[in-house]
Every structure is written in structure tokens, then in C-alpha cells.
Amino acid sequence: MLAALLNSPQHTQVDALNRAQLIIDVMDVAELGRLSYQLAFEIIGSLRHEKEFLPWEAGLAKLEPIKTMLSRTANYGSFKKFIQKLMAPIVSSLGTLTEEPSTFEQSRLLSCIATWACPLEVGDFASQASQLYKQWRSSPNPDTDNPIPKDVRSAVYSHIVREGKVEEWDFLWERYKNTNLSTEKTNIMIALTTTKEVWLLNRCLDWTLDSNSGIRKQESFIMFALVAKQETGFYVAQKFFFRNIKRISDYFGATSALIGRYITAIAQQMIHPKELEELKWFVDSNEELLAPASLAVTQALESVQINIDWMKNHYS
């Protein structure tokens, strides 16, 4: 009955905040195994009729970990098609990346939708992103003259790096070095880690441990974690961490608990029993270096087991 209401034109009888909370609650219960994902996805499917920010924010936040789980499986294509169908109406309704929305809520909605629509090729947002980049690239001074609306910069930057070549990566890298705006640096860092070029990801990770590279020390782990979240980047980040734990420990100090955040970033992406075995072997082999982060290590191993159990129960 609830699913039917939310999937009908009368869904606005429930206010936006409550619609968002219903999505959160249903997905939480499904994650605990107390509700079938089939029913949960019927509720998520109500987003096809949704035009307000809060329900979309809630729904996409709950879909993000599932996307991560499925991104390295054979069923990712089916998940991608589901998202494309889910988002097609809102992308069509929003229409353009080039115009600044009239309200703050609409700005947040556009940013939220563009972040998913560009990489999943929903509507023509990806082609619009490419056109915006061409305008920016042709600017005589791209550091001060950026035609890309601020709300969609993260989505556009990521699109051009993901689909581009080394020239696009290097262009964004120069912008990263030249800006002092923290939001802009974050947008660019996210984008730089979306490249499909393994050598660029390796170079980026090497630079995180080089104080002269242009990556500030306080941003080194952030860059690593962003790489680890990417489909290609996970494997690169895992190998980099396993091979360079001593360098990381030396760079931040042998007593730094920051090393625990590295292992957490890797563990969050692991879904297979073999990966858990490899992580346990790595932990046993580097007990001294990981000592300052013993709690994080324990929690990381537990999180991998949770992921494995989720895959066993829900993926087939």
C-alpha cells in the first residue's frame, strides 16, 4: 500500500521530508535482512515520480553502497539500467547543466542528479558536460574564467577526466595547483581519481607521499580514499597500500593512527572471501606498522566480513 502511494501521482500527500525518511528506513531494514530488497526497490522506484531534493538525496545515498558492492560484479549492468530508468524523468525535467537553478533546493537537486547522471549516461547530461568543458578549455585564463556552474562542477570535472585522456587530467591538475578554494580543490581531487588510466592513478598516489608534488599533506589520505572508491582505482589503491605501507608510515610518522584510515578505505570496497584472506595476511605481516591503528584494523576486518555476508545473502 505504501509503495503504491509513493509510486502514484498522489505521492505528494506525504511531505518530502517524510518521503525521504521512508526511503531511508526501508533500505535500512532491507540491509538488516528484515525486508526483501524487492519491496525496498519498489519504494526506491518511487523516485521516478520525484522532483524534490530530499527524497533524491536519501535514495541515492542508500543506493551508493549497493552500487559499490555491485560495481565489480556481472550484475552491475542490470543495476546501471535500473538507475538509468529511475533517473530519466528527473534528468529530462531538469533539462540543462548550463543554467543556474532559481532556488537553493533546486541547486542541490541538480548537483545531486548530475553526479550520478553523467557517469551512468542518463539523458544528455554527459554531452552537455563535454560542451561546458570545451568552453572552459578555450578560455584565455581558465583559473579565473570558468563558465561551468558551481553546482555541477564536480560532475563535469569528473566526466571530462573519466572519458578523457592525459591532457584532460593534466589540465585539471594545473587548476588544482592554482586554486586556493577548498571546495574547488575537492571537486578537482574527486575528478582526478576517476581516470581509467592506471598509470595516472599510480602517479597520483605516488604524489600523495611527495611533499613537493603539489598535494598538501593534509589532503594525501583524501586523495588515496577517493582513488580507492573508484572501480579501477580500488585495485590500484590496494596494491599501492600493500606495497607502500612503510612509506606511508614514515611520511606521517610511525605513531600516527592515520594508517588506520588507509586500511579502512580499502576494506570498505572488499566483497570477496579471498580479499579478506589477503587483508588478514597483510595485517599479520605488518603488525608493528599497524599497531597504532589496532582498533581500525579490527573494524576493517569486520567490515569486510559484513560485505561478504551481504553479497552471500543478496547477490546471486
UniProtKB/TrEMBL annotation:
It comes from the Eukaryota. Its main location: membrane. GO terms for molecular function: metalloaminopeptidase activity; peptide binding; zinc ion binding. GO terms for biological process: peptide catabolic process; proteolysis. InterPro entries: ERAP1-like_C_dom, Peptidase_M1_aminopeptidases. Its cofactor is Zn(2+). GO terms for cellular component: cytoplasm; extracellular space; plasma membrane. It holds the Pfam family ERAP1_C. It is found in: Cell membrane. Residues 2-305 form the ERAP1-like C-terminal domain. Keywords: Cell membrane, Disulfide bond, Glycoprotein, Hydrolase, Membrane, Metal-binding, Metalloprotease, Protease, Zinc. Belongs to the peptidase M1 family. This is ERAP1-like C-terminal domain-containing protein. It comes from Homalodisca liturata.
